[in-house]
Every structure is written in structure tokens, then in C-alpha cells.
User: What shape does this take?
Amino acid sequence: MNTKDMTQSIMRRKPIDDIEEENKHSGLFKSLGLWQLTAIGVGGIIGVGIFSLAGLVAAGSGDNPGVGPAVLISFLIAGLASAAAALSYAEFAGMIPRAGSAYTYGYVALGEVIGWFIGWDLLLEYTAIVAVVAIGISGYFDAFLSGIGIHMPAWMTSTPDEGKGGIFNIPAILVCLLVTWILSRGTKAFGRFELVAVAIKVVLILFIIGLGIFYIDTNNYNPFMPSGFGPVLAGSA
Assistant: This one.
């Protein structure tokens, strides 16, 4: 096989009709409604970073300078990027209403090798996201227990690389096991859980915004961007 044939082979695109025919024999069926799908989309856009990283972006940590009040711009940039991703998915889903998500979209629109890379990228991405979310939840859970006078030993709530004498993060592991169990219950169970979780997340965010409005002090906005635009852009990521 010469270079031209190999290029044509890996860049070949699958017709939508072929995907539809494969789906008829795949055993997949629709089990999520409008609200569940909306919750999955919103949950993917509003990640755990808004809870676990917003304060670190504003105040800074270690060698990373804080962006101060310019965290507003970081949120704006992140919001625009999230909106662009959401609109792209909406466009693809309307054009190719088939199972397979971004893998199928890439395969049909750009070629097999692009779809292959997208599929594996999503697998690695969501695996890493689960770990980050679990660690974030563990940190909040530990802070909550400390607030009511219950202190968990460091070896149970941190990992060896954190320098706290930790062995493994038990709460984070339990969160991962819980998510795995929910997913094993089926798509409908996951959809219901996601709907409840996202509803709680949105209500909590609206509550924080509504309460925070009464504590706005414009004197804190000077200097507005103490570390320059670079950290602001990095913080939006």
C-alpha cells in the first residue's frame, strides 16, 4: 500500500446512512429524555472547577500568581469557550442525529483517523475528569467535617505527592466507586442522578451569586488585573 492509498484509507469518511444501518443492529435504544440530556450538557459545561479552582485562580497558589478581580474576565473567557463547544455539539447533533457522540461526528465529517483520535481523547479526558472531581469533592468533604469538629487523618485524605504523609485519598476513591456503581445501573439511572446533581449545582451557584451581590465592594477592584493578562487567560482554562 503506497502513501496515497494509506492516506485515503485513514481519512475515509463514513456515510450517515451506513451509521444508521449499524445502529439498527447495535441494540442501542433511546432511554434519555429532554431534561436528562439537558442536564448532561449543562453538567459537562459547568464542571467542578467553578467550585474547587475559582478561589485559587483569584488568590493564587504556590508559583501561580492570583488574578484578583480579573477573575471575572477568566469566567467570561471560559463561558465563551464553553458556549462555542455547546453550539458545536448542537450543530453536529442536528446534522448527524446518531449514536456515538463526538467519535461519530469526527468520523463522518473529518475522517476515520480523526474520529479514532477523538474517541480515545474523550476516554482519557473523562477518566482524568473523574479523578479531579473526586479529589475536589474529597477536599470539600474534609473541610465540612473539620468545620463540625471531625478531623480525618491526613493519610486518608491525601496522596503521597502532596507531602502530608498521605497514602491514598479514601473519600475520592469512594466517590469513584459510587459513580461506577451508578453507571452500572444503566443509562436511565445515570440520567436521573445527573438531573438531580446538576439541579443542586445550578441552585447552589445561583444562591452564591444572589448572596454575593450584597457583598460587592468596588474598592476591591483596584488594581483590577494585578498580574497581567497571562494569568487571567491561564485561569480561564
In short: Residues 34-214 form one domain. The chain has a mean pLDDT of 79.
